[in-house]
Amino acid sequence: MVVWEFPCESRTLSGIDTENLVIVVTRFFLVKKKKPKSWCFCLDYRRRTLILVLWSSLIGYIMNKFSSGVPKVSDFSGTRHIGLDIARSIAIVLVLFSHARYLVGEPGTYFFLTIGAKFGVELFFVLSGFLIGTILLKSFDSGINSSSLFRFWVRRWLRTLPAYFSVLLFVWVIFDEVNFFYFFFLQDLVLGNWNLMPVSWSLVIEEWFYLMFPLLVIGFSFFYPRSAFLLSALFLCCLSIVYPMQEYFSCSNNVDSLSCFENEVRKSTFRFGSLGIGVLIAYMQHRLDLRSAMNRRIKTLFFCLLISLLLVTLFSYQVASGNILDGASTVLYFCIFYPLMGFVAGLTIIFLFSIDLKFPIVPLKLISFVSITSYSNYLWHMLVFDYLKTWKGEIDSEYLVLAFFSVSFFVAGLSYLIIEKPFLTLRNKVAS
Predict the structure, then answer these.
(1) pLDDT for the residue numbered 268
(2) Are 196 and 179 in contact (CB under 8 A)?
(3) β partners of residue 392
(4) d(CA 159, CA 423)
């Protein structure tokens, strides 16, 4: 994993070496760096600072113009679906735990947490497909046109881009690293890597899904108007298996097949399978009232979910650890690995969406906080991780892990209140 290098290398437990800090800060602001010609913005500190100030001013203006007063922590609760909040909370916590294992002495001891992170991301994908599918179904029922389609895209962009761009600007200003393609989610298609922002691979998949899926439904509607939505969702599920077929075979013959699989298949721009599963769930809910049907069979659904979770855990551990069964096809394992995880993530969403849950006010607010700030947490937590990792060996791992979770949630809360919420308010004003 490529990490960002923080400028403070000489430190003690009592703090940072002041002399080195002064040198670093002086060089950053006064020395003009020469860079090789590349697809990068090579601007001096004055222009970088100006852009940061303009971005901060824009956020401040939006907060003042569209927010009703200063955001409060109580804003984290309200009329939300607690089951879906739990799903989102589980997903982000699994991702955090997976990365936190690299802060302990021997990460291999906690290898099983890697499986949790993979499942957490698939859970994010299924949930996103479900929510986006629900929105689009309502739009298509009322009659889709260019205006409503553009409004859908604007609402999605105001939801996802401000926080994402803020992280890119932060990395640019602090580390003097930026790449043009990241602003258009082309880092996979053009660059073939996500080194500048490692977690951005999943955002690339989601943003291309937002763009392509509505167009796919419109395309199918010319030939099969009644079943266009269903066919589009099924097409996405098939595409995620067929599209990277060449990579499946290529990775099965690779010396480090797991690493090849991770980069060439898992993080492929058009791996829409789990998103397609979420869309299918939205379709069944919209047409068949899936929630009511499953609520009457909640015990059976729970039993099926437990069995599925057990089986997918065993299977996933085998694949992730490279322990493929003798005589079994590596290509076959790769082909069914993520579709299987997506299927179990889909069962999890159906269960949490169908069951009736009630919590006291304090746990309810806590779940809502973790859920609502999960996007910001996902974006920022690797920066927190990379900084704390420089302290590994100097501070007890237990304290590092505690600091990782505490700071990640704190930064996520600030990001939501200062960046996300104002733009969400703006979204409701201009694209309602």
Answers:
(1) 78
(2) yes
(3) 395
(4) 7
